[in-house]
Amino acid sequence: MCPRSLQMRAALSSALASLAVFTVLGIAFDLGVRNKVETHLYLEAQRAATDWLASMRPGDVPRPTPMSRVDLLQLVDSRNRVVVSSTAAANRPALTAPLPPPEDRIQYRTECSPDGGCVVLVALRVLPFQTGLIWGGETHAVYAGRAQPAILATHRLELGTAAGVLLAAGLWGWGNWYRTGRTLRPVAEIRAKMSEITVSDLSMRVPQPSGCDEIAELARTANQTLARLETAVGQQRLFASVVSHELKSPLTGLRASLEEALLYRDEVDPHETIEAALETTDRFKAIIDDILMLAHLRTAEPVKPEPVDLGLLVEQETARTRGVPVLADAAPDLTVLGNRIQLVGALTNLIVNAQRHARSVVRVTVEQDGGEAVVTVLDDGDGIALEDRERVFEPFVRLQDGRRRDPKGTGLGLAISRAVAGAHEGTLRVEDSPRGARFVLRLPLCRAARQVQKEPAA
């Protein structure tokens, strides 16, 4: 069964790969050592043979006196009979056979006897002019060698090399296991901390290692995600709390009026009670519709955008308004990509809000500012205090003047308008104005509209 631990898998894979590499290196090392030792032995034996041969004179063939570890020296005749030998080679038959041929005078041989001993030797055929001077032309040869050393005669080298290969592969695997463990330690800490985080407490953060590697980026991304999640859950909790409060008040009033109608049937007009209940349910429906709209904008998948002529859209919507006059001044051919229904809803909310607070007139302008279409909704009312300019976009937030002018409002219109702006990669803010409240909606123009607007300037 394959180990499940990533650390163990990495260490095992590394150990197997290193074992293959070290095995190849071990074989190469073994062969290299053997070749080096044999080459040294052959050269040493050849030197001993040539030195002994150089000391021979006609009628005088001295007994060799080994000056090195090459102690087996023999002079043999043409029938491979030993003529003279060193003390160590006395009473031994010829070390090898046959004699080297004339075309290959020097041969390196390893001869092994039945008893298991092996000799590393050089067979040197004497040159013809030397045989003529010393032996009257009879072929002779010199054998020089020594017993095969233990490093070649046994498997010690192979066993030592195999042990070294296994040890090196084991150390390499352990080192990789240790390094992988150190690398994955932050991941284990992140996992442990993530397991402690619950919905009830999203303030915890995973440990974030220093540096810019992938694990540090993972920790940073996890903390950013947790921060966004904490903010979203906090907003949802606040939203749920506000929604429950907004629904609880009219629901309590509805229940009280119905109970009163049941308890005091002779004193309470049932038709009035039913009419009041219908008004309350209409308010419920308005609040629920706005809540669903706001939730849809925040969580739903974006629909495929379509080109929308923003100037034409503003002119059409302002033409449908009733009550306080709305004057529109829209530049032509300002096209944005978006959801037409959502944009209509956002514009309607802004215009209705402006009419609610205006004294005599509302002005709506549409113009281009760089790569953006800018919609400005300006009323001539009392305006919005600087500290309230962001609060008005929060769900269910209604300033005192707004509650007085429209007691039945839900307080979600501006929040929906800002959500629509955000869904279209735009912005909605309250900006400074000499008089009244000035709401500014900025939406990016589509690429074709930008090109059209640039051509006349060129």
Quick synopsis:
This protein has 458 residues and is an alpha+beta fold. The protein has helices at 6-54, 128-135, 150-153, 156-196, 214-263, 270-299, 310-319, 340-357, 400-405, 413-423, 447-457, and strands at 72-76, 82-85, 106-112, 118-125, 141-147, 306-309, 326-330, 335-338, 362-369, 372-379, 427-431, 438-444. Strands 2-1-5-4-3 form a five-stranded antiparallel beta sheet, covered by helices on one side. A five-stranded mixed beta sheet has the order 7-9-10-12-11.
How would you describe what is shown here?
This protein has 458 residues and is α+β, with helices and mostly antiparallel strands. The protein has three domains: 6-157, PAS domain (Beta-Lactamase); 217-299, Helix Hairpins (Orthogonal Bundle); 306-457, Heat Shock Protein 90. It is 52% helix and 16% strand. The protein has eleven helices and twelve strands. It has helices spanning 6-54, 128-135, 150-153, 156-196, 214-263, 270-299, 310-319, 340-357, 400-405, 413-423, 447-457; strands at residues 72-76, 82-85, 106-112, 118-125, 141-147, 306-309, 326-330, 335-338, 362-369, 372-379, 427-431, 438-444. The strands form three sheets. A five-stranded antiparallel beta sheet has the order 2-1-5-4-3, with helices on one face. A five-stranded mixed beta sheet has the order 7-9-10-12-11. The protein has a two-stranded antiparallel sheet with strand order 6-8. Helix 6 packs parallel to helix 10 (413-423) and helix 7 (310-319) crosses helix 8 (340-357). The longest helix has 50 residues, at 214-263. It is rod-shaped and about 160 Å long. The model is unreliable at 452-458 (pLDDT under 50).
